[in-house]
What does this fold into?
Amino acid sequence: MTRNAQDRAEGGRARLLLLDFDGTLADSRPWFLGALDDAARRFGFRRITAEEAEALRGLPTAAILRSLRVRPWQVPMIALHLRRLAAQAPPPPLFPGIPALLARLQAAGTALALVTSNAEANARLALGPAAGAIVHWSCDASLFGKPARMRGVLARAGIPPREAAAIGDEIRDIEAARRAGIRIAAVTWGYATRPALAAARPDALIDSVADLATWLGLDPAAPTRG
It folds into this structure.
């Protein structure tokens, strides 16, 4: 974690933590690339190579859609198709240390919310026992619908934005949190590249689960494996 990220992390633990799922808690990117190719054949947008997929990680979502030649009216149908494929696929593995981190946050009294474009059933299956740590579920968000979902969670929880924080792995997560008035840490192990995330200016850039625990105000000496 950078020195600037540590400086901006000061100010106490969040009462409510809004978590993204794909690329943040679960390593779904390998599955997504195969599903995206399936969707490209079905809906007629541009298929890409593995090298092109890696390059697209450095672009915002809108630019990715333009590069793939996806028309705006196709987005809801493509999203629905991907959700159906996800429901039929094995659950993606959680990143190492995530279950333990969620358990530590729950024990520390932090309310956890899941705000994701994925389906709740898929997320629960992947999280397994760790799903018990999640208090608020806001799933099936549209591609650019996270700001409203975040504001909805804040309203239901009765917690002001200044007492909340968000964790995500994409530029759109950073933009959504900013629109909702929530500070956000961007993790670098997900869908977007570190330089792309840095350019979007999150409150912190996080390179490991241990660093994430520190940013969230947990004891850095405590284990985060599991």
In short: The chain has eleven helices and six strands.
